Automatic annotation (TrEMBL):
Pfam families given in the database record: p450
Listed GO CC annotations: membrane
Signal sequence extent: none
Keyword annotations: Heme, Iron, Membrane, Metal-binding, Oxidoreductase, Transmembrane, Transmembrane helix
InterPro entries in alphabetical order: Cyt_P450, Cyt_P450_sf, Plant_Cytochrome_P450_Monoox
Cofactor: heme
Organism: Nymphaea colorata (pocket water lily)
Keyword Transmembrane helix listed: yes
Compartment list: Membrane
Superkingdom as given in the UniProt entry: Eukaryota
Record's protein name: Cytochrome P450
Length: 38
């Protein structure tokens, strides 16, 4: 049960992060540039 709860919390966090990035294109561009740099 604890493993499932931990996995679900991680999935929800990733979903929120992706939705925020997709709704803020300038932030998404900054993140892409940062990943390309490294």
């Amino acid at each position: 049960v604890l493993v499932v709860a931990g996995t679900e919390a991680t999935a929800i966090t990733l979903e929120w992060a992706l939705s925020l990035l997709l709704n803020n294109p300038h932030i998404l561009k900054k993140a892409q540039d940062e990943l390309d740099y490294h």
